[in-house]
Amino acid sequence: MKAPPDIIDRVRLIRTPGIGPVTYRQLLLRFGSAEAALAAIPDLARRGGGKAPAIFPKSAADREFAAVEKAGARYLILGQGLYPRALAELESAPPLLTVIGRLALLEQPMVAIVGARNASAAACRFARGLAHDLSREGVAVVSGLARGIDSAALDGSIDSGTIAVIAGGVDVYYPPENEVRQKDVAERGLLVAEMPPGTEPRARHFPYRNRIIAGLAVGTVVIEAAPQSGSLITARLAAEAGREVMAVPGSPIDPRAQGCNQLIREGATLIQSAADVIECIGNLHGKLASPPNASEFRPGPERNEGEPEVLALVEALLGPSPAPVDEIVRLSGASPGAVQLALLELDLAGRLDRHAGNKVSLR
């Protein structure tokens, strides 16, 4: 199948060095299409005082599209109908997802189950039973396909509804011993990846994967997690996204339970059964599953003639410490559109860092 030009342009845009999900979204909001955004990048970077990034080649985007097809996968595109609506609410939502399997699962309420890789046998048994009971009630279970709790949750829900989010490409099996599980998910559940096919997972990819897990789900259940673990990062991301955080208590003398017990002390809902989870998430699924905004990527206004000095003003307000964009708009006195354009120029010039919570700093 010949690749649609719009998809190729979107692949080129998000794979261009220095363009992350937030910058991608800002470019499409301003220019309306990936093609127009690609054409605008050199001039934006020049106005920002830097050198334009090397645009991802069309030939490489064509090869990626072919690899996705060869793997039996397809793209889900941010701002279009099949893209998960709850995930689209995240500021850092992935512009492209690669998926294999049952897309109908994305229409069900989703709950993430995460926890320790070196989980106890009792915790794995509980995770497997909880996932089984939730999936039988029409709740799709989201996990990360890691060892321990993730694998147990997958095993419990595979018959009725499991979604596995992986850190590498859809055609890369990690950890290697989960190859059979990953193939099983692709056939009977839904496999989700942000990275292009052929990508071997690296340490930096796992926090990105965790935000997808938290973003897909209306709530996250943590079962055994040590302090500073990736599972607690997922729980924090879920809380920041306004989703429910739930935890299964454990023995105070087991280090693997310290993270869960701390979450409960901080306000997470204590979970002992699937009924507890269903009661906790309540009607949150309906609130998140609103129709996507059809006007999301219409072109924004250009900078007004009277605002040529906005770039210098914004640059003067920025420093090495992250500052909220809303505060930059307020202090500058310029229009939000003009400030966003100035930030885009600095970003594409390699002079801006974007942070969680819609904050920016000067590099």
Automatic annotation (TrEMBL):
Domain DprA winged helix residue range list: 314-358
Organism listed in the record: Sphingomonas caseinilyticus
The name this protein goes by in its record: DNA-processing protein DprA
Residues covered by the Smf/DprA SLOG domain: 76-280
Pfam families: DNA_processg_A, DprA_N, WHD_DprA
NCBIfam families in alphabetical order: dprA
Family indicated by similarity: Belongs to the DprA/Smf family.
